[in-house]
Structures are given as C-alpha cells and as structure tokens.
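Hi V.,

You were right to ask for the full record rather than a summary. Here it is.
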Amino acid sequence: KYGASLSRVFFTMGSQFVSYVFQLGVFVVFCMCVIYFTILLHEKVPVMVARVNTEEYDTFNHMEKLSDEKRLIPVLCNSTTFSDNNRHQETMKRRLPKALIIGAKKCGTTALLKMLLSHPLITGPNYETGFFMKSNRYNRGFKWYRGIMPYSSEKEITIEKSPMYFYNQNALERIYEYSRDMKLLLILRDPIIRSISDYAWWLAVKYKGNDTPSYESIVFKNGKPSKSEIITRVSEIELSMYDIYYENLLKLFKREQIYIVNGDKLISNPVPELKKIERFLNIPQYFNDDIFYFSKDKGFFCWRKMNRKTYPPCTMAKPECLSSHNGRKHPNVSSSSLYEVELFLKPHIQRFCTMVPAYVDFHWCS
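Predicted structure:
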C-alpha cells in the first residue's frame, strides 16, 4: 500500500518536472526566435530613415536641436549605386591603395582626405602611414601595408595620404615600383600662404609659451627682410618651390596619372573640386551642394559624414568639420617680409605654372 502511494507520488513529481522542462524549453526557443528576428530586422533597418526636403534643413544645426525620437536623418543620394545593400553581401577584404594623396605639406591634404572619405565608394586610413617614405615601415612589406588598410568591397577604391611623398624622391620611386599606373592627387595652394601655414604649424607643434621665434628669424639670415638673405633650406621656403618637386614627379609618372587639386578653391568652394576628382578616379558622382554647408562659427565648410555602419550606405550621419589643429589662424607676418619671400619664389612659381596642364587655374599663376 505504501509502495503504491510512493510510486504515485514519484510519478506525479516526474510528470510535473517534465512539464516544467518542456515549458522552459518552449520559452527559451521563443526568446531565441525573438532575438534572431530582432537582429535580422536591425541589420536591414538599423536607423529610422526618412527622405526629407533638405531645404528645410540648410544646416544640421536645426536637426541637432531635435530629440533622438524626432530626429530625421536625410537620405540625399538617390542613385542605386549608393542605395543597395550589396556592400554587405560582397567579399570584404583589405585592399592595397589604388590612389595616393602625395602632398603638398600644409596645402589641405587632411581636409581633402576627410572629404573624400565621406564618399560611399572611397575608403582608406584616416592617418598618414608614410609607408613608401619610412624604411622601417616599407621593409615590413606589402602584406603589412595591406593589413593597415580598412576592409572594402570590389566597388570601392582605397586611398592613402602622406603629404611628404611629393618631396621625397625615394618614396616616389618606391611608389612607381609598386604600381606604374598609380593615380596621384597633388593638392597645392598659394606658395606664400603655404609658407605661413608651415610656420604656424611649427609654432603650434614645436614651440610653446611666449618664447617663439618670429617668421623673419627663421626665413632670413639676419632676421630682417631681404631677398638675398633668405634661408632656402627651411621648410617654409624649400617646400614652396613646387617646380623642383613637380619636375622630379614627371620623371616617373605621366601627367594623366597626376591630378592637381586647387587647395584654395577646395576650402572656399569644395564641391566643384571634388567632382573633378570623382571624374579623375573614375567613380560615380556623389558630391553635391546638399552635403556641404558653411559654418560661420568655424569660418569654413563642413560636410555630412558618411555612416558606413548603416544600410543603405548613403545614409548621412552627423556633420564633420576640420579639427582645431587644422585651419589654424595664421600669425601676423609683416608685408615687407612677404614681399621679399614672394620676390624669391617668383621664378619658381613662374616655372611651375608653365609645367602644369591647362586645367590648372591657380590665381597665383596669372
């Protein structure tokens, strides 16, 4: 009698245990399904995107004031080239650069790179690698070089910038050995302004406090303006002699492989220059006036950065501007000093202007 009762108790407990386990299993499977479909939906629709009239948002400042729940992210590109999801499905791998920004120093290479990286079909490291110039890196080989490049699809073009390539003959020869068909972007600006910008960079990087050397003490032997007393081996002067380095560049590469970017126009009106670069790189047109806006606070153009983590990839993220160490305010330099520097550089400027293609329209060449 007692054995039968005990058996019934164990049978009842066992049945309840199996029922609980079954219910728990069903609950776990249900939770896993919810998580799976949530992730799947998140991959396809990562952000709430709405096509809006961009005229209502002349700058992103209006949108930043909205709450996260009400903020709309405008999609400004309608081309299927940028709106499909093929990038996620294609073979993604690290690829060697097909184009290089080779210089010149203090002519806007950082601004150019950042603007180009906002294009959905351009990718690359956002820092200077110096691979072809620094032997300790070059000797690591192209496997190492490829390893520092971001992942990209076959449709994208990888680009790298190191502004001192233009001045380093050894680096140019290594680039030529690597790829004789390499496309080169050379951004230049008024050589006099470049000289002052170089001086401002040295003040910010090397000197601190009030004990800073004047422009005259660096450029002139006796510290006073004089054409005959200019020190040519300082970067403020030497790196503004474009003709010397451009001539060396043409010894290795064809003119059609080099596109000269007008650095002055890129800062004042970036879209026309960027469209020319798109044609040079043979990539679909993307840049337009809706992407850029002039920031009165910063004093130059800002742009709507590409958010590569969302789909479609043309979805715009928050705007990007140059950081505080770019576009530094130039220190005051006497007009007499600038006059003497201009007199010294004038033969180099004139010679350079006779060497460049017809599309180059620098105001300082006229």
